[in-house]
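FAQ: What does the model actually see?

It sees only this:
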Amino acid sequence: MSSHEAPGGAQPLFVTTRWSVVLAARDKSLPASAEALESICRAYWSPLYALVRRQGHAPHDAQDLTQEFFARLLQKDYLQAADREKGRLRTFLHVALKRFLANEWDRVRAQKRGGGVPPVSFDTAVAEERYLQHGTAALSAERIYERQWAMTLLEQSMSRLRTEYQAARKEAEFEQLKSTLTAERGAIPYAELAAHLNITEGAARVAVHRVRKRFRELFRATIADTVDSPAEVDDEVRYVARVLGET
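And it is asked to produce this:
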């Protein structure tokens, strides 16, 4: 599991899983195998569900297909095809899901819905809402997947940052500062923040600098957990930033 943890031992809301651990999870004897795979399912259901939906499947069918794909991952059937040379977790999941959809749609559709226990539960209403939010008519399945992937990484980073502030009993401060994470530096209302936080404007500038710096660190750490080599992190950070910057 990831070594990136909140200061003071606070447990992040999302427990990241390194791609190297995922590859190692092909060995069923590893104790962390099941936990690593389940964390992947819980973290990345949104972009995978969006990819299924963009392939033309109705919401209820997309739910079944995504759950079945998770089941295959947990059984490690698909991990046997994982190739360390692929480098990025998002690439492997994309390719594996498309192969699954091509081979398994008829069989999954024929199954009685609700006949088994889902391997991982997730909020299907939230998945559908996120899918509909991003101009689906104008985007290809691949672009939908990439955008949802980038948004998921952003949300994970934000959750980890919020957890750190909660652990430090500074949740109210975080709520005031979080809007500055995506603001242009020249547009940050330091005087207003200072008034809300009951601190000087200079102290507000320091607080903003710290929260933005820590967010960048956590964003990079979250992305690092989805590639196989540290050498790939910079390229992946640029890729995610580019996708998030697209309109």
